[in-house]
Each structure stands twice: as C-alpha cells, then as structure tokens.
Amino acid sequence: MKIEDIEKMGYSELVALVKERNRPSGGIRTIQNVAVNSFLTKDKKMLEIGSNTGFTCVNMSLLTGCECVGIDINENSIREAKEYAKMQNMGNKVSFIKANTESLPFGYESFDVVWCSNVTSFIEDKEKVIKEYLRVLKPNGILVVVPIYYIKNPSDEIVSKISDAIGTKIEVWNKLFWTDLFEETSEKHKIPIELFYSKDFIYEDRINFIDEFVKIVLDKPHLKGLSEGSKSQIKKGYGDFIRLFNENLKYAGFSILLYQKRRIKDEKELFLTKEK
Predict the structure, then answer these.
(1) d(CA 94, CA 163)
(2) Please, how many CA atoms are within 13 Å of residue 79, restricted to the half-sphere of its CB?
(3) Mind listing the domains of the chain with CATH numbers?
(4) 3-class DSSP state for residue 209?
(5) Is 207 helix (H, G, I), strand (E, B) or coil?
(6) Per-residue pLDDT tens over the stretch 146-183
(7) What tens digit of pLDDT does each residue of 26-81 get?
C-alpha cells in the first residue's frame, strides 16, 4: 500500500483499514446496562440498526443468549462483523445483512428489541426511519436509543472539522432534541411509546491514552506486512482523527433512552422525581 494513498484516506477508510472494533458510546457497559433494563433473554430477538463491525450484536448475544440481527449498508463492515461473530463462536445466534434503514426488510412486529444507538444522527429523513423502527418492533417491545449530543457549545471550528472528518454535517443538538424527535414521531403516527428509562453520561478526556491505543490497533496481525512508512502514515492519520474526536467529546454527552412500544397512550406523569 502506497503512503500517498494512505494520506488521502478519510476517517471511515482508515477505520476499515485498521479494522477498529466499533463500540457504542459507553462500550460494553452500555450493552450490559441495556441488557438488564430491556429484559433481554435467550428467547428474545433483537435488531441492531447500523451494526458496523458487529460489537454490539455479538456482545449482547454473548451476555443474554438472545438472537440478534444486525443491518448495515457497508459491505466491508458486514464481512468483518460476520468474521467477528465466527471468532466468538456466535454464528448460530447472530447474523448480519446489508439493508437500507428507510425500508427495513422485515415484517411488522418482528423484534422484541430494536437498537438504533446513535445512527439516526446520520440519516436525513429521521421521521421515516423512526417509523420503521417502530413498525418492526413488537407491542411491549423496547426501542433502544443511545444518542450523542452537545452539553456545552463547541466552537464552529470543531464542528466544521468533525463534519469534514465523518463526511456528514454535524448539528449542535441537545438531549431534548432527541426525546422530542422520538416522542413527536410516535404521536404523529399514532404508535404510542413510553420512556421508562433514561440515564445520562459524559465522556472522559482520554488524550493521555490515545498513543497507546493507536499502538495496539497498529499491532493487529493483518497490518504486520505493511512497510514502516505506511505504518507511520496510518499512525499519524488515524491518531489525528482520534485526537479530534477526543477534543469534540469534551463538549458532548450521551444518554441511554429506553422506550416501550405501547398499545394505548397514557397521560404524562405530573409529579416527577429525581435521585437524591
């Protein structure tokens, strides 16, 4: 691989090259949190929207024994996800297919849990895909949303750099934007949902660990045949992206939001409480 080819790579191309195992915000702890609070068991079936390289599906199945189907539009990600499931000996419980989120290839009420994490951020017609999530979700099933949003205003420069890095225009949304979006879509299409679990998190500053992480990633067997010049360029390009994301996340937080699909809509609670 030529150094000049690596220099031209964007973030998604570098991630594909190094085969970074894409995790949800909060990683394995978020998966454990959702597993417990969405009551997943070996008899239930989960759909993940935007499964990337398979971490969430495979690890959710490992923790709960549930069947999991992941969809993504990137064939390289699907191929890597299938390989990951095979390595974890979960090929009989987990499957991955190429599919478009706006027209899911599943029948009505097919899944006990639909996990859409933060993928809705990158879809233009958000109302349409949320309606699809709810269409394939069983009555009493759980919709899992793990949105990333800003809790402090970032600079225009950071927002612009992040938008360029991921190839999608980033908007400065807050948590209320996401809860309003899902609840208003539910209301409009007369598919009642109830938010029964909500927990907020902030990101730690990991700047002092980035070099170590990049070193671990570059030590993967499939990269060992590359020249030292190519490895050096990957280290620089990939490391620069990770540092940019770390800077951006100083302004951001994320939430675990669990909605239950209901048969009827209840009135809103009047007397709200918070932990002491």
Answers:
(1) 32
(2) 5
(3) 3-261 (3.40.50.150)
(4) helix
(5) helix
(6) 999 999 999 999 999 999 998 888 999 999 999 999 99
(7) 999 999 999 999 999 999 999 999 999 999 999 999 999 999 999 999 888 899 99
